[in-house]
Amino acid sequence: MRAPRFSPEAIAFLRGLKRHNNREWFNARKAQYEELVRAPMLDVVERLGVDFQKFAPELAAGPRSLFRIYRDTRFSTDKSPYKTQVSAVFPNKQLPKHGGAGLYMEVAPGWVWVGGGLYAPDTPMLHKVREHIASNLRRFRSIVESPAFRPRILLRELIVDDLQVLPEWRLQRALRLTRAILEATVREAQLHGARPLFVAPLFEPEPELVRELLEGLPHVAVRLAPERILPWDGHPDPRGARQIADAIVAALQRPPEESSWR
Description:
Blueprint: H1 8-19, H2 23-28, H3 30-55, E1 86-90, E2 102-108, E3 111-117, H4 123-135, H5 137-144, H6 155-165, H7 168-191, E4 198-202, H8 208-214, E5 219-223, H9 238-253
Helix pairs in contact: 1-3
């Protein structure tokens, strides 16, 4: 079986859709989408269905693996009607939707993204996963600390790169929305008699974005040394987590009006 692939015309179509994300543009070119984007993705899924038999026969791969190109905009401030990537999910055949771990992939003009894991696990499932990791911690650490597992690009680096190219109007809109959510959280906490406190772990020396978001809100910023970052995922190590916990305790011991930028 010849390896399926996306043509340059497919990537050009997705770039065009990103620039012209409206129904008029898409409907006039829907046949191109079917031929250039959806059909090659179906070929990829079909090939994966064959390959999975060798190493993950429990995963399902078929036409239903594909995500629709149409976005669900009901609860989003971004009303763009179409996704600008093509994607698919490969769940466990024996489990209900989101009932266990699976694989996911997407193809966009700027990247190909492949990942695996649990999507929005419910509380009982999350407890089982944590208990299994705790019971097999040595094996877990041998996997995530191996050189082959460590990512070449960390999530925070992707975020920084994305912010550098984000249009100013989109960045400001995102800041306004995030700020409104934070302010609403403070009001809701106070309404229920709780004391709000936001915690911002910082790994970079100039957190202007965080400062702008949290200015005037009850918060504590904890600056962590680079050696306190786990090399494989960018989260704090145990000493870094303890530093964060100590900062939270210290902030809560002060009168509320003194909990500010440190």
